[in-house]
Amino acid sequence: MKIVVIGDVHSNLPALEAVIKEIKENIKPDLIFFSGDAVGYGPWPGETIDILKENVDYGVLGNHDAGIVGKTDINDYYDAVRYVINWTTDILTNEQFAFLDRLKYIHVNESARTLLSHGSPRMPERYDYIFNCKGVNRLYDVAPFLQKVNFMGHSHYMNLFLLTGNNQSVELNIASGEVDISTLPNPVVCVCGSVGQPRDGDPRSSFVSYDTDKQILKYHRVEYDFELTIDKIKSLRLPASFGERLRNGC
Ligand SMILES: [Fe+2]
User: Fold this and answer.
1) Average per-residue pLDDT in the chain?
2) Any residues with CB less than 8 A from the CB of 200 and at least 6 apart, and which?
């Protein structure tokens, strides 16, 4: 079975359209997972949700999505983020709102031996980031619940970590874009990048695919026209920095 994991779309419609095109033409997966944050930052929240609704098989609730549906306190967020969350809440239809409202914090697929969450699955409603081995090591608290592959988003980076036992982990090299995990005895944590706002210095959309039979993870990049998103943000007078950062992927 082939699974694709997309997430952190953040209302960036040209990015999502480019990624869906790549998935349909070149990957042809059996399942599409969504790792959270459909909305926030970007200018096309309703259109983004409509495309996700049509294409995603299983999804989880991101922190920006949780802000929309009242499941997290957005007073902790800085003004510009809060402004876009409130603007988004005002323009979503009931059906679009309901799509976000139905998302759970965790999705486990036992036959594929995968777990899906937005931030760390240790206390998923807290949305802790996993950037490094220190974050991964905290997952030993919930080790019995982990699966062979634990997908997450939230950081907008792409990483792969292996739990090595004794509360330790290592980061694996993903530079080749493909990692065979079939011989690895322990769970891995796969951080899946971001469709709509990558932050690793590469402006191209990022996402992951996984072949559950061969146990091979692939890290994908897709170009899209970020100037369209920057122009739309300007025309709607949303915070301009949320557009400008797309040029540099940061
Ligand atoms: Fe995000």
Assistant:
1) 98
2) 156, 157, 158, 193, 206, 249, 250
